[in-house]
Write a structure and sequence with these properties.
It is a single chain. With 321 residues, the chain is of the alpha/beta class. The chain has two domains: 182 residues, 3-Layer(aba) Sandwich (Isopropylmalate Dehydrogenase), CATH 3.40.718; 127 residues, Isopropylmalate Dehydrogenase, CATH 3.40.718.10. The protein is built from eleven helices and twelve strands. The strands form two sheets. Strands 3-4-2-1-5-12-11-6 form an eight-stranded mixed β-sheet. A four-stranded parallel β-sheet has the order 7-10-8-9, sandwiched between helices. The longest helix has 19 residues. The two termini are 16 Å apart.
């Protein structure tokens, strides 16, 4: 009988919709045991507020490898979190709690117990404090990983931005052949190892219609040459393609992945097409890290209206891995 490695879940921002989508996701069946890293006190409060009932199994961190786990209970590693009022606004007061939760998850991974990590939504503005562009960069830094990428994965079509959370005025400075080559290699490796196929990748241009009134056209000088080189090296790439037409049905159906030059160039259309049916996978790490493809959404806390599909898809993906 196959023994499944546990899926570690860091609950993330305490003032978010995470517990609601977590409870809803547990209605599905998974072969891999789930270990939640979160505040026991906060979990109980959320269960009461959302009228959710399930037994909790408190785990001792030092004995984590010795437990026989199932998903008949919520397997919890408690992280103490002090709060005067639950369900308050997001602030930096949660930072220490979130960081301690991540550190416990990294320790479990480093001990070889699992290679599967999910983190709940986290406020980049408050937690990262401009030190990192995103959680992708935060985790990559913990493992001294230089080559990394953010893949928004859907089995029909995925997207990856060359630059992530940069202001638009800074994007062009980071568009170079090295960064584009790095992302193509990471995407290709991920699909080969996890999806068992060689992906067809469309590379977008930076400028509207891949044209520019400026003397220096990044699409002609940077994108086109690296696409030609990578194609010559055996990668299934093409481009530069115009971003305003690549997502049309007859165009997108020809590709597994669309590589864009900046965050919203590809995340806006993928979320329009698939909404919550997508997951955020960090490429380049020595383990599989996924997060649901949405934020904390504090305005929806306690309303029991949030869609759990992205978390369910994250759990399903890791369950098969």
């Amino acid at each position: 009988m196959k023994k499944y490695k546990p899926i570690i879940i860091v609950a993330g921002e305490p003032n978010s919709i995470f517990f609601e989508i977590f409870f809803k996701s547990l209605k599905k069946t998974y072969s891999s045991p789930i270990i939640l890293i979160a505040s026991h006190k906060l979990l109980l409060l959320q269960m009461k507020k959302l009228n959710y009932k399930k037994k909790i199994k408190l785990l001792e961190f030092e004995k984590i490898s010795k437990y026989i786990l199932s998903n008949k209970t919520i397997n919890l590693i408690n992280v103490n979190y002090r709060f005067s009022k639950p369900f308050k606004k997001i602030s930096s007061k949660s930072n220490n709690y979130i960081e301690r939760s991540f550190d416990l998850a990294f320790k479990i991974i480093n001990d070889g117990i699992t290679n599967k990590l999910i983190n709940g939504p986290i406020s980049k503005k408050n937690f990262l404090k401009k030190k990192y562009l995103g959680i992708t960069e935060y985790i990559a830094n913990k493992y001294s990983v230089k080559k990394k990428a953010m893949l928004i994965y859907n089995k029909h079509l995925s997207v990856c931005p060359v630059t992530t959370h940069l202001p638009l005025k800074l994007v062009s400075r980071k568009i170079n052949q090295k960064n584009i080559k790095e992302k193509i290699e990471l995407i290709n490796e991920f699909y080969k190892n996890n999806i068992k196929l060689k992906p067809k990748i469309a590379i977008l241009g930076l400028n509207p219609h891949c044209e520019s009134v400026d003397k220096f056209n990044e699409d002609e000088k940077i994108v086109k040459p690296i696409v030609k080189k990578m194609k010559k090296n055996g990668y299934k790439v093409s481009g530069p393609h115009s971003a305003d037409t690549i997502f049309l049905n007859n165009n997108r159906k020809n590709y597994d992945v669309i590589l864009g030059m900046y965050h919203d160039q590809v995340l806006t259309p993928i979320k329009t097409l698939y909404e919550y049916d997508a997951i955020n996978i960090t490429l380049g790490l020595p383990f599989l890290r996924i997060s649901p493809d949405h934020g904390p959404n504090e305005r929806m806390i306690g309303k029991n209206l949030s869609n759990p599909l992205s978390l369910i898809q994250a759990l399903r993906f890791l369950d098969k891995s």
